[in-house]
Amino acid sequence: MYDVVIVGAGPAGASTAYVLENSGYKIALLDKEQFPRTKPCAGVIPPKVYSELEIPDNIMERPLEGYRIFSPSGAMVQSSFPTRGLIVRRERFDNFLIKRLKNQPKRIRVSRYEIKKEFVEVGGKGGSFRTNLVVGADGVNSVVRKISGINDCGKNRSSDMAVAMQYEISLSKERVDDMIGNWFEVYYSIPYGYAWISPLKDAVKLGVGGLSPSFKKNCKKNLDEFLKRKDIKEKISDGKIVRTEAHLIPMRGPFDILTADRTILVGDAGGFVFPGTGEGIFYAMKSGRIAAEVIIQAIKEQRFELKFLGTSYTEKLKKNGLTSLRKVDFVERVLSSPEKAEKYLKRLKLFS
User: Fold this and answer.
1) Cα angle 111, 114, 120; round to 5
2) Where along the chain do its domains lie?
3) Counting CB atoms within 10 angstroms of each CB, which of 95, 127, 183, 295 has the fewest?
4) Does residue 30 contact residue 236 with C-beta atoms inside 8 Å?
5) What are phi and psi of 53, to 5 degrees?
6) Cβ atoms within 10 A of the Cβ of 217, count?
């Protein structure tokens, strides 16, 4: 019998596990993959991540100075961070997070989830676990969210998932330094979506993501068209595509329903992503820590029902500013048309 079973060992799950382990609770961390593993992601982490943990320099691909944002007409605003952030490769960063844990993830693809009177039974091929509480940290296609019933509750807006695709393109370090430097570039050139370039040591991640049905049907075509743009070709000339990745991005902030009896969602499984840039790593880690605090309170009071978990989690998320992500109406306000994107860049310039 475990105090908590956490499904998914990415930044959200590993952060939840770290807090609970260090508070003396018996946990099981489950993941369908063997670590280290690759993960489709631009790897952008803002400086506020240092409020959650210290990250050694050897995990960093590049320091991150801030964002460069481009309008459809090519106008650019450079938004600098007060202190540096960082860009990482997820295979190294996620492995660093789980290596901090006393107990490493168990490799199990979860397919069973049943709430009993006194516990939850969760498992799949390779094992079964009884626990007081389950944390769904298993990403945008969360199995926990689906089989717990949370997916069908309220306005979870599962249709508001952007389809994203990116190429990893190898380039010399000197070329990346000269053409992009230590900046994450965002291009508001796609209706109901955007494109990006994320610099690594000797490569870049170049991608597109969008919400519209027409974009979703032609995601790779849109990616290739972005790659062929004259200004983009100049930046990545002589580069070679070495990897293609596809994934989903929640674009409306945290879901309205984040808990069920004995169940809490964190990270991408709960929609904790900033709509303007697709940034999710920091919000994944923070939602994981907040969920751990709620779980500690729930275990002490033996309160595992939906009402208690939902109220406590919402209050703490609000106090920490994470529910405000729902109010970032970025899709309609900025991304829905070139004209709105241009106006947004003009406003940014006034304050840059």
Assistant:
1) 110
2) 2-45+89-158+252-325
3) 127
4) no
5) -170, 165
6) 10
Q: Which of 33-37, 50-54, 158-162 has the highest mean pLDDT?
A: 33-37
Backbone conformation region of residue 113, classed left if phi is above 0, alpha if psi is from -120 to 50, else beta: beta
State whether residue 306 is helix, strand or coil. Answer: helix
273 Cβ contact list (under 8 Å, min separation 6): 249, 250, 251, 253, 279, 280, 283, 325
Q: Copy the structure tokens of residue 92.
A: 């190294």
Partnered with residue 282 across adjacent β-strands are none
Residues 254/326, Cβ–Cβ less than 8 Å? yes
pLDDT tens by residue, 53-110: 888 888 999 999 999 999 999 889 998 999 999 999 999 999 999 999 999 999 999 9
Pair of tokens at residue 144: 């926990």
297 φ/ψ angles, rounded to the nearest 5 degrees: -65, -40
What kind of architecture, by CATH, is found in domain 2-45+89-158+252-325? 3-Layer(bba) Sandwich (3.50)
pLDDT tens readout for residues 136-165: 999 988 999 998 888 755 554 545 788 999
Answer yes or no: pTM beyond 0.85. Answer: yes
Distance CA 125, CA 99 (A): 24
B/e letters for 315-348, b = 16+ CB within 10 Å, e = fewer, are ebbeeeebbebbeeebbeebbeeeeebeebbeeb
Task: Report CA-CA distances (Å) from 308 to 16, 134, 181, 332.
Answer: 19, 15, 48, 34
Could you tell me if 119 and 56 are in contact, meaning their C-beta atoms sit under 8 angstroms apart? no
Express each pLDDT in 322-339 by its tens digit: 998 887 778 888 888 889
Of the candidates 296, 298, 319, the one whose C-alpha atom is nearest the C-alpha of residue 308 is 298
State whether the Cα torsion 233-235-237-242 is positive or negative. negative
Contact 292, 19 (CB under 8 A): yes
Residue 153: what pLDDT?
Answer: 53
